[in-house]
Design brief:
single chain, 315 residues, mainly beta, Porin, two-stranded antiparallel ribbon
């Protein structure tokens, strides 16, 4: 059984690597051709539901980002003691972030997220942009982020003998590939890679004794797909799907279940300087690596929650 799981994992890993190789080869070929003007309006913001897009913060420009997630829809069933109003009164998660465009092709950012006290540093680099003459048919961007778990050392997650500070760190990287097909429809796909310095462990029987074994892989691979359909000049329908290919080393349990795919859909209202997105989502963690590895919410009222994103650009 372990051999079969390893083969499946290797097949999934090879699929991701093949996608990355295709992007790099295509990009290298495209650089050798004459480029026309870059296509604009592929997406309205660099932040999209639970992911990034190929949109860059312009040179010498600040961007302020607010990500907010309420509780589950099932938390708000009406009764004699209304307590959460479909998750609006439930404990929420929020991230505040700032991005700055060093150049038109390179930006940096940082942020802080309430759940697990996660602080992040991130950067995004535009490798190539889709052109109006279609000689370069897609935009390709690389996004990377480093996360620090700032919870106290005395908390249960770090209270073990061999604790090291680097165990607080985790990393998320992805290659984003987008295309604007026409004035109404844009599509993006991404190959994702997550690295965890600290993974779940469990004590399992081994003969007449017990041993501690890892439950999750330190290296996790996945994919993401998202789409935007413009309904008017300022309003669009938006949707996203994320899936983690990396499975647990051991049989899933109620305590340690497999990660579920993330589903999100909603609407966006955008202008030249701001974007407001309101949606329902199964991903409540906000930080990308946590959503990819630890999301266990089903696509139902028990897993869906209301969220919104706000971005504001200061030129």
């Amino acid at each position: 059984m372990t051999t079969i799981k390893n083969r499946l994992y290797n097949m999934q890993l090879n699929s991701v690597l093949a996608l990355v190789s295709f992007v790099l080869i295509t990009t290298s070929f495209s650089f050798g051709q004459d480029a026309n003007k870059a296509v604009t309006g592929v997406f309205n913001s660099g932040v999209f539901l639970e992911n990034q897009t190929t949109v860059m913060v312009p040179k010498k420009t600040f961007e302020f980002v607010i990500n907010h997630r309420f509780g589950k829809l099932s938390d708000g069933k009406y009764s004699d003691d209304i307590s959460s109003m479909y998750g609006l009164y439930s404990p929420s998660n929020i991230r505040l972030g700032f991005n700055y465009g060093i150049t038109d092709k390179f930006q940096i950012g940082f942020g802080a997220t309430k759940n697990n006290l996660q602080e992040d540093l991130n950067y995004k680099y535009s490798i190539v942009e889709q052109t109006t003459n279609n000689k370069i048919p897609v935009s390709v961007v690389f996004f990377g982020a480093t996360y620090l778990d700032a919870r106290l050392k005395s908390s249960s997650v770090f209270s073990y003998p061999n604790y090291k500070y680097v165990h607080r760190l985790s990393y998320f990287n992805e290659i984003l590939i987008s295309r604007k097909f026409n004035d109404m429809f844009s599509l993006q796909a991404a190959a994702t890679y997550t690295h965890l310095n600290l993974v779940d462990q469990a004590t399992v029987p081994f003969g007449n004794t017990q041993v501690v074994e890892r439950l999750r892989r330190s290296d996790q691979f996945g994919m993401s797909a998202l789409a935007k359909i413009n309904l008017t000049q300022t309003i669009a329908f938006i949707c996203e799907y994320d899936n983690n290919f990396s499975k647990l080393y051991m049989q899933p349990t109620a305590t340690y279940p497999e990660a579920r795919p993330n589903f999100s859909f909603g609407f966006e209202n955008a202008t030249a300087a701001h974007s407001f997105q309101v949606f329902v989502t199964t991903a409540s963690n906000i930080t990308y690596q946590t959503n990819m590895v630890y999301n266990t919410n089903p696509f139902s009222t028990k897993g869906l929650g209301i969220g919104f994103n706000i971005t504001r650009v200061f030129y």
